[in-house]
Amino acid sequence: MCATGQGAQRQAATRDGTGSLWRALAVARLVLLGYAAAVNVLQWQGYQRPGLAWVVLAGIAAWSLAAPWLYVAPRRRPWLLAVDLALGVGALLVTPYAEGAAMLARDASTIPSYWIAAPVIAWAIQWGWRGGLAAALVEGAVGLSVRVEHTSTTVGNIFLLVVTGLTVGYAASLVRISALERAEAATLSAATRERERLSRAVHDGVLQVLSYVQRRGAEIGGPTAELAELAAEQEEALRGLVRGTNYGTSRPIPAVSDVAGLLQLETSRAVSVATPGESVPLPTHTATELVAAVRAA
């Protein structure tokens, strides 16, 4: 039961196509954590409160290990993102008390160092470039507030945060669009395969027999005229079933539609539609307008 639930969560997490980005972020967290640990090892002897610095670093490490598992469930992501950003901001705010003013005056690295890019990336994946930009600006403002002097290095690091948020956010948006297009293409492909299956199952001989009954009944007249009319109605319904496409109201509107199949749905006793023997894909908006124009005519 637990494995099934976890599998469903993973499937939901990757439905929008960003699953690979979240997995990449998990790896990036560990890389950034390793860099932050190395920086603190090199400069901890100059800290005013080294114990506090190691506590902060331990908290960052614990979160970096737990976050990939917590982020699997999409419903938890909004508050997890808030915790993620709060942890980065908190680590920056603790830096002056742990390192001391003397260390910061020498332009020493903050306790989280480049690890603060991880929350920015997470926000960018979830909310696009706007989320990445917002998180970068928040952390950048806090980073400036804890510095004694605003050097070119500090400004450059904030600029890198902003660029990271914008770039990853834009990439995440493209991934979502691509996933949606693939889903629409898969829907159209499935509908096409279903029509082909029906076409093979319903032999052309059935349509030919119905057409023959219609013609002969009309020629003979009398009581057989009613039979001819019924045969004509069934022939039209069968042709529409074989060629028509029905996506259903619960499915997303596809980007591309088969205009030939849509036109076949307009077939009636008074209207005869002749289309190619294969699908004629057009953008859904264009296909809809074309069918509306034909219907109005």
Characterization of the model:
The chain contains eleven helices and two strands. It has two domains: 179 residues, no CATH class; 49 residues, no CATH class. Helix 2 runs antiparallel to helix 3, helix 2 packs across helix 6 and helix 4 packs across helix 6. A two-stranded antiparallel sheet has the order 1-2. The N terminus is likely disordered. With 297 residues, it is an all-alpha fold. The protein is 74% helix and 2% strand.
Task: Give the helices and strands, then pairings.
Layout: H1 2-13, H2 19-43, H3 50-70, H4 77-99, H5 101-105, H6 117-145, H7 152-201, H8 204-220, H9 224-243, E1 256-258, H10 259-264, E2 281-283, H11 284-296
Antiparallel strand pairs: 1-2
State the gist of this model.
The protein has helices at residues 2-13, 19-43, 50-70, 77-99, 101-105, 117-145, 152-201, 204-220, 224-243, 259-264, 284-296; strands at residues 256-258, 281-283. The protein has 297 residues and is mainly alpha-helical.
Q: Radius of gyration over alpha carbons?
A: 32 Å
Number of domains: 2
H-E string: HHHHHHHHHEHEH
Beginning-to-end CA distance, first to last residue: 58 Å
Helical region count?
11
Overall geometric form: rod-shaped
Task: State the strand order across the main sheet.
Answer: 1-2
Strand content: under 5%
User: Structural class of the secondary elements?
Assistant: mainly alpha
Task: Provide the low-confidence segments as ranges.
Answer: 1-6, 245-251
Number of beta strands: 2
Helix content: over 70%
The main β sheet shows up as: 2 strands, antiparallel
Mean pLDDT score: 83
